[in-house]
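User: Can you predict the 3D structure for this chain?
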Amino acid sequence: MSEMLSLTRAARLVGVNRTALQKKIQCGEMTSFDGMVSRDALLACFPEAQLEENAELARVLQIKERAFGKRVFERALPDAEVLAERITELSTALAGSQSQVKQFNSLLNRLWDQLDEIARKDAAFVSLKSWLKDEVEAAMEPGFSNPLAIRDGMLRVMTAQVTVLPGRQDFLVEGQDTLLEAAMRAGIPLNYGCSGGNCGLCKAKVVSGRVKKTRHHDFALSEAEKNQGCILMCSNTAISDVVLEATVAGSVQDIPFQQITAKVKSVELLSGNVLLLHLQTPRSQRLRFLAGQRVTLRVGSAYTAELSIASCPCDDRNILFHLHYFSGNLFSEFVFNRLKAGDEVEVEGPQGEFILHEKSERALYFIAFDGGFAPIKSLIEHAMSLETEHIHLHWIASTEPNIYMSNVGRAWADALDGFAYTELIAGFDLHTISGKRETSLLDMLEALQCSNPEIAASDVYLAGPQASVFLAEKFFLAAGMPKSRVFIEVVQ
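Assistant: Here is the predicted structure, written as structure tokens:
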């Protein structure tokens, strides 16, 4: 019987995302059982997998590396001891298979002896013995070798699969990642605090499988917790496939309010009036947030601003912001003119409910008005980590310079087959909408809807100045979309 594979591992083997496999199952092209597929069924549905390299996987990994700022060599190979233990696991399984083969051969020899004895007493059994031997010899001849089985063997050395209960989310642990790092990279918001082994919030119970402690932690687990199989996910990696019991954030209410002193890593000018502010939190106190949320920043003596986070939660130490210059605004003037690398910035939060609704299987339409691209960028990077198949980004700007990161949208469109990117220039200030401006923006939205008729059956995320966002929300609701599928965030 062909081995059963999880959708995560099966998708990795043939170089597609989980959504593509789910669609094959839903339309009856591929059979599944309890969320698992067999190697034979997978190969029958993707016969080219035995011939082609995993090009799609490489493209997705490449865009993830660029978006999340991770270096490829850091994820290439597991720790030497972990690698040795995984090879030992496979060797043990191979030895077990070889032992079973020997036992089977011994059983066959005893069977032939018994049939010889019976055939001497009853000639009718001679033809039965001859037929049985022919069938056994045919079955024992070298047959078709499933190339996915070979590739899966290699994948099991390089990665381990983790399933999180009770929600049954699953992800792969690659390279030298801890369980927590791998989950965050896969877009699964496990509960954690410091990420450095001090707070104990990332405690989880190992239900099955083997893990290995790869990093020191100061938090002390009780003997009772150790006996129950409890570990800290920030300090352990997976040796074999693992099943964990762990807490996963399901809503903004599951994210605690935090106060962190971060340092400026860089301040980079994106356009004439937009800065990219890169903050880095201490290793022992990282910011936990959901994609699309915002925080309050405090600089200087008492200059504050509430800004949307423009980066993915998968890299919680490095937090990005897009800051627009406003004359007379003390916060923006301080950051533009005085803030420099190494300075301290107080971070409080997160706040906001403009988050990705992950359980939806609908296509995603993101419409950013001017600086609304910041939270939209965070949501898109999170959607990419979840391997969402259909993503559409429309960036509507007052003027051309307000599209200050067009290279990012174009790179996403080039790297991902299911990603579409469009830029639109309104030609007027999107903060003030009335009269002819309102008519003009409504015309743009109607043209967008006409060229994308499937938007009515999708989820729409709107972010930007209040006047533009409220008008766009009103437009889509008037077009018949339910309020439960139109999400808004006001960004000044």
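The chain has a mean pLDDT of 85. The chain has four domains: 4-66, 70-248, 253-351, 364-490.
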